[in-house]
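Thread: quick sanity check before group meeting

JM: Hey all, I'm pulling together slides for Thursday and realized we never actually wrote out the predicted structure for the chain we discussed last week. Dropping the sequence here so it's in one place. If anyone has concerns about the input, flag it before I start.
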Amino acid sequence: MFDFIARLPPSLVDVIGVIGFSLYVMNYCLLTFHRLTSHSKLYFMINLMAASMVLIGLTHSFNLASALIQLFWIVISTTAIVLRQRQSRTGQSRSADSDWTQSQRLMPDAKAKP
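JM (edit): ok, ran it. Output follows.
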């Protein structure tokens, strides 16, 4: 697999990295505007895809610090997805509405849900 990535044209590798960056930004915007919760599997799946794509983008212009942060996101996202998958099997999953309600109790001065 690494050989396959190494044979890709540098311009394509850059595009893959930029798409990963775009996924990070999109995920953050979805979270900020309450279209996605940080408790959902989708949030972590998007982070996993973004980190993987940015890491691929780093293969032609490597940066250790950036590679380490991408590896961290891959590990933490994979762990969160596995945990949420186990929770959903045992019926312990939480809905977005209950997440919102709980966050309102923690932050009573927050604006009302749109």
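AS: nice. The mean pLDDT is 86. The first helix runs from residue 2 to 6.
JM: adding both to the slides.
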